[in-house]
Design brief:
alpha/beta, 6-stranded parallel sheet, 13 helices, 42% helix
Length: 390
């Protein structure tokens, strides 16, 4: 099939966020199945697509809140209020108005349009008239926005998140009706769609294409940190989990245990416990994960699937995780512990670190997990495209 993959961020050679990693996994699987896929969307300034010959760049522009000055955010908010759109959609409308729809028409016709999240079709509802559409729900966006509103201490942000939730729910429910098929990234999110959509939806198990699941070599360097966390912490649902870990779990850990936090960070951070080091964005996520004795997966909000959890499983690394961090998985590896309260989470970390320090690295081979994920991803994609072609 000839497919258009319509996305706010076109995949680049080294995907940085969970959203980008998921995009790359889906695109790679579609192309591996023999489909001709053209990615149409935006890039951050200075980046180039992973496959330039299969990409149409509408503009190179920052569309993430953490990357733009206050005046740009105010412009987005004012545009959203004027157009009756969620801010997340209004920013894309401003970036692509007069160009996005024209690019899709110019490079078509397509057998199907893959709407990669609700944000672009929310900004450009006319996309639904350009061909059969399949929707990718990375998260149930209105649920995530509602969670962010509930956790925000700032009255203005709380109002904005509540407004996003209300408008996004209206957009999402319309898209569930109008799309030929809906892909979610977790069975839990598919259940949220409700009984009416079970026959026209499937969950896509993902893989992180960069993960190297080779067995641990005896010559591997000694870990630099005891506990590692990595993520895009500028996204409010992710930061809720990091904040919970720093405020409620770190004080329960012995002071000699070291903690490293990697990834994009918001401009304002809470006071850090003394054993915590912020390392920022790292050049290689896998190398960072391998430099930690154990991973902490501390999600407390959000929907979709946790790419950090997938990466840990692919690499065969030990972890302590909340139940929410493991959404989308029915079975946990033997080197994972599940804990949902601060005392239980801290105790599980200390216990596994004690075993690791005695020589039991608690590493597993992730090859079987990766093979299963890839097969299930291919099957889910085929089911959705079959529905689009009918």
């Amino acid at each position: 099939m000839r497919l258009a993959f319509l996305t706010s961020l076109i995949p680049v050679a080294r995907p940085d966020t969970g959203f980008e990693i998921a995009n790359a996994a889906i695109l790679d699987a579609l192309r591996a199945a023999g489909h001709e896929v053209t990615a149409i969307g935006f890039l951050r300034p200075g980046e180039i697509p992973a496959q330039p010959e299969g990409a149409v760049v509408i503009d190179a522009i920052d569309i993430e809140n953490a990357a733009v000055p206050a005046r740009r955010k105010l412009q987005w908010i004012l545009s959203a209020l004027a157009k009756g759109l969620p801010v997340a959609c209004a920013k894309l409308r401003l970036a692509g108005e007069g160009r996005l729809i024209e690019a899709v028409r110019a490079h078509g016709p397509f057998d199907a349009l893959i709407l990669n999240s609700v944000m672009l079709p929310g900004a450009f509802p006319e996309l639904l008239s350009l061909g059969p559409c399949v929707l990718v729900e990375h998260n149930i966006e209105h649920v995530s926005a509602r969670q962010s509103a509930a956790h925000s201490a700032n009255p203005l942000l709380r109002w904005l998140f509540a407004r996003e939730a209300r408008l996004l729910e209206r957009i999402e429910r319309r898209l569930w009706d109008e799309a030929r098929f809906v892909w979610t990234l977790a069975e839990e999110d598919r259940a949220v769609l409700g009984p009416a959509y079970q026959a026209k939806s499937a969950a896509l198990p993902l893989v992180s294409g960069s993960a190297r699941n080779a067995p641990v070599e005896a010559t591997e360097p000694a870990p630099a940190y005891d506990i590692g966390l990595i993520g895009t912490w500028t996204w409010a649902p992710n930061f809720i989990g990091l904040d919970w870990f720093l405020r409620e779990i770190c004080p329960l850990l012995p002071p000699e245990i070291t903690v490293a936090v990697a990834g994009r960070l918001p401009s304002e951070m809470p006071d850090l416990p003394p054993q915590v080091k912020l390392v920022g964005r790292v050049p290689d996520a896998d190398d960072f994960l391998r430099s930690c004795r154990i991973l902490a997966l501390s999600s407390r909000a959000g929907t979709g699937v946790q790419l950090k959890t997938i990466e840990a499983m692919q690499l065969g690394l030990p972890a302590v995780a909340t139940t929410l961090s493991c959404r989308g998985f029915s079975e946990m590896p033997a080197n994972f512990s599940i804990a949902d309260t601060p005392p239980a989470f801290a105790q599980a970390l200390v216990a596994r670190l004690g075993a690791i320090r005695t020589g039991d690295r608690q590493r597993l081979d992730g090859a079987a997990f990766m093979a299963g994920q890839r097969a299930a991803l291919a099957a889910g994609l085929a089911q959705g495209l079959a529905a689009a072609s009918r």
